[in-house]
Amino acid sequence: MLLSHLLHLEGIASVVLERRSREALEKTVRAGVLEHGTAELLKEVGVGERMEREGSVHSGIELRFGGRGHRIDFADLTDGLSITIYGQQEVVKDLIQARLETDGQILFEAEAASLHDLDTVSPRVHFQNDGEEEEISCDFVAGCDGFFGVCRDGIPENARTEYERTYPFAWFGILVEGPPSTEELIYTLHDRGFSLVSTRNPEIQRLYFQCDPADKVENWPDERIWDELSTRLATHDGWELADGNIFQKDIVQMRSFVCEPMQYGKLFLAGDAAHIVPPTGAKGMNLAVADIQVLAHALAEFYRSGDTGLLDAYSETCLHRVWRAQRFSWWMTSMLHRFDRSDPFQLKVQQAELGYVTSSRAAATTIAENYVGAALG
Ligand code: PHB
Is there an atom of ligand 1 within 6 Å of 280 CB? Predict the structure, then answer.
């Protein structure tokens, strides 16, 4: 959706094949943290107006461990940079509206089925539309169909390498109708595991806690969830978690994944189709936006001058940032989760690391500049 908008601004036509319905897309609550550069881009390209009105700018986060909170002050540590809390589905809503207002072509409930002739001048995409199989031929295919989409397989197996790490835990997520407990996000390490207090807006709160990947939503009645969160988030000074009405529960699996290269012939992968990060660094949507910015720029250069230099370098350009974000996401995940509750040594080392990153200005800066996106290149 963003690529289509950026191409439109360059006078380049595109068709978006979207597997889901507009209603489902606009309703599903997903990620919520926009890096400084992501928020700036949305403003620059004319889709940031509602974000500026309804989103909230945060200039820090809290790291909580040993019953105490410690603030990482982004503004102070990164020369005034910040993050914006604004749901991914709200960004998507704004992009859909912008595309439809300028006669953009979005086919909803149209699922890409297979890709053909990617190494020719006229690649083709087969897709399902209203129960019929249809075909589009085009100059380029942007594979933005997520981790489970068909596009990654467009790169022959012997032409790609996949790097993967899975984690022995998942996140149990809840959406709560109720007041916020905190102004800024709280990332907590406790002997019982990680938890995170996040928000969507003044009325809707988003909280997570580490759980077993095989756990089931049915095992967690509301009262058990509040008990677990209160235990993990408790502080020595009696901080209180505001409760509310839990209206959604889900379990988020955690993995790190990268496909190299991110291109083959006329196919360019972007976002989750090419890479997955565990959510602890809040990087998923931001990496997708960064890929698209590189791709839009490279396509614009090609249509302007015929030069394929930027397109040829697409994968290499994106992978630099992707691996930096992988490292940060893996590191935050490793520092904040219990891998093995029978290993007290690991907890002690994690607490020492958290003590270091919250007391040394140099170490705190590494969190701040990665979290806001400034250190990713
Ligand atoms: C969220 O609000 O959904 C959220 C925030 C921060 C994260 C992950 C998820 O690191």
Answer: yes
User: Ligand 1 centroid to 125 CA: how many Å?
Assistant: 34
Burial of 63 (C-beta count, 10 Å sphere; 0-12/13-18/19+): buried
How many helices (DSSP H) and strands (DSSP E) are in the chain? Answer: 12, 19
Distance 207 CA to ligand 1 centre (A): 8
CA of residue 54 relative to chain centroid, distance: 20
Q: Which atom of ligand 1 is nearest to the CA of 282?
A: 10
Tens of pLDDT, residue by residue, the chain (377 residues): 999 999 999 999 999 999 999 999 998 888 899 999 999 999 999 999 999 999 999 999 999 999 999 999 999 999 999 999 999 999 999 999 999 999 999 999 999 999 999 999 999 999 999 889 999 999 999 999 999 999 999 999 999 999 999 999 999 999 999 999 999 999 999 999 999 999 988 999 999 999 999 999 999 999 999 999 999 999 999 999 999 999 999 999 999 999 999 999 999 999 999 999 999 999 999 999 999 999 999 999 999 999 999 999 999 999 999 999 999 999 999 999 999 999 999 999 999 999 999 999 999 999 999 999 999 98
Q: Which of 29, 30, 33, 253 to mutate to test the pocket of ligand 1 (most atoms within 8 A of CB)?
A: 33
Would you name the residues annotated as active-site residues?
Answer: 58, 187, 279, 283, 371
H/E stretch holding 310 reads helix 309-312
User: pTM for the complete prediction?
Assistant: 0.97
For residues 114 and 120, give the distance between their C-alpha atoms in angstroms, rounded to a whole number. 16
237-261: string of b/e by CB count within 10 Å (b at 16+)? Answer: eebebebbebeebebeebebbbbbb
Cβ–Cβ under 8 Å, residues 313 and 301? no
- Centre of ligand 1 to C-alpha 86, Å, is 11
Taking residue 53's Cβ as centre, other Cβ atoms within 10 Å add up to 8
Structure-token match 């976002």, residue found: 271
Is there an atom of ligand 1 within 6 Å of 89 CB? no
Q: How far is the CA of 319 from the centre of ligand 1 (A)?
A: 23
